[in-house]
Structure formats: C-alpha cells, structure tokens
Amino acid sequence: MKSSFWGDYLSRNYVVGVDLGGTKILTAVADRQGSVLSRVRVATGADLGQDHVINEIVTSVAVALREAGVSTEAVAAAGIGVPGPLDPQTGVVYLAPNLGWQNLSLGEILGSRLKLPVYVDNDANLAALGECVYGAGQSADNLVYITVSTGVGGGLILGGKIYHGFSGGAGEIGHITLAADGPRCGCGNLGCLEALASGTAIAKRAVALVAEGRGLGILSRAGGDRGGVSARVVAAAASNGDGEAILIMRDAGRYLGMAVAGILNLLNPSVVVLGGGVMQSGSILWEAMLETTRRCALSSALQEVSIVRAALGEEAGVMGALALALEKSQGV
User: Fold this and answer.
1) Is there a contact between 245 and 206 (Cβ–Cβ < 8 Å)?
2) Which domain of life is it from (predicted)?
3) What residue spans define the domains of the chain?
C-alpha cells in the first residue's frame, strides 16, 4: 500500500531531470508524458568547490521550473546523473573525480534543498535510459549504450531496467581488456578499450607518429602544431584520404567492434546504441566497427540486433534523468 507521502507525490504532474557534468549542468522540466517544458544550461564551476556546484544545481532547477511555469509543489521527483561510481539506493556518490567529490550524500543533500524526492544514478546509465525511452532504442527491453569521446563509457538496460550489477559497477565497457600488452589505460590496466579507441587514444597514437617524424598529413591538419593534434584532426585527415590517419581510425574501429561483438555474445541485446563525439567522426571508424562486429559475434547474437547511432546527443543524460524521475515517482 502506498503511504500518504507517496499518495501526495503521485498526484503531482511534473518531474525534473539534471545531467551533472564536469563542465556543464543541464536541467530540464517535463510533464508525465515526457514532454519537455524547459531546458537550462549553466557552467558547473567544479573548481569553485562542492558547495558552489550544489548551489548551481539548486539554482538551475529553480530557473528551469520558473521558465516552465511550474511550481515546486507540482513536481513529483527529480532525477540526477553524476559522472562517477555511486549507490543508486542511497544517493551517495563514492567518487566523482572531475568534480573533486568523494563519499558525498548527494541525494540526501539535494532532497533537503529542493524539498523533493531525489534519485541519483551514474550519468552513462541515464544516457542509456534516455536513448531507450526517448531516443534510438525506444521500446527496447535489452539495450547496451556505448559512448566514445574523451573516454569510453556505457550503460546497460536489461529487462527494461538499468542494470547496476552486484555492487553498482556494471557497464564499465571502456575497461574491457582487448590487448593484454596494449597501452596503459587511465585506470592503470593495460589494453582497455578506452586506451585503444577513445578520442584520447586516437590523439595519442597520432602524436606518437608525429614524434617519430611521420604523420605529416595529420600534423598539417593541425596547422603544424603538434599540440593541436586531436581525434577530430585525425578524423578530418582520414576523411581527406590520409593513409596514416585512416589506419588509426580503422584500428580504433576494429577494437570497438571487438568489444561490441563480445557484448553481443554475452548479453544478446536487441539494440546497441553508440554515441559520443568520436562516433560522429565519419564513416571510416563506423564501418571498421561494423565489419569487426559481424566477423567476431556469433550469428545468433547478430541475427536480430540493431546497431545504431545515438539520437539524443548531449541531451541523452538529462532525458534519462527525466525518465528515472518519472519511473520512481510512479512508485515502480
């Protein structure tokens, strides 16, 4: 039986979603049909400290509600995505390196400040939920989301719900080991997908080429400045036909395809959604990923799966936060 508390909140018609990043906070207000009424984007200001960031979240929610013409008393719940490991049950953020947070009871703090039930989850998990509910994987009960940008992250929707794993760490797709003697990853391991196919990995490989006196086409694209060599520069050089850049992008695509194939064989999802800046870098990486996936995955796992580009862009996280708030406010 629902308590009077839940009875009160179930009668409210709006929800708030917050996507908290290292550089920006994106906040939105939606009705119970998922229609977004307002969006507010502000700088995170992580270098100004924990209290500043929390104040910015609270302020952004207030502004978003005002722009939507919605009072706090009409809001059922708020969902928030955070970049780091956390406990979705308690709302405690164990570690958010880009924010300088450790063991922060964010759900409790924001719940008290906003006077609302607040639900906290990992940002990649909520991006997966956003794509599942509103984006490229709509209506999929079993979906894997992979984001390839500065790093590689992921989220799992299994049986229509976010899958957190035993201790909340599921979905760390970027740290699947693909080359036992490969380059060192930021996590300390060798040969992680993130160390082989992320934007950072692509740039590092190109910089190493330039340091050896090669990669002249890539260096030219960077205006002759070695410090300007980035994944975007490498992708542009590859699209322009530079052979060394093409090889770098193809290799990154092949490693990504190996990871996707392993995920298909393990989880047999109906949809794999790939997002992030690197996935917008042209067809070379995408085609290499698909070719490797088809070669390495079992035919039974490939038979019905859809491998698609993300549809929501940078709004995937905030849309997932709204979806989480809607789900939780219905008492599910």
Assistant:
1) yes
2) Bacteria
3) 4-132+315-329, 138-310
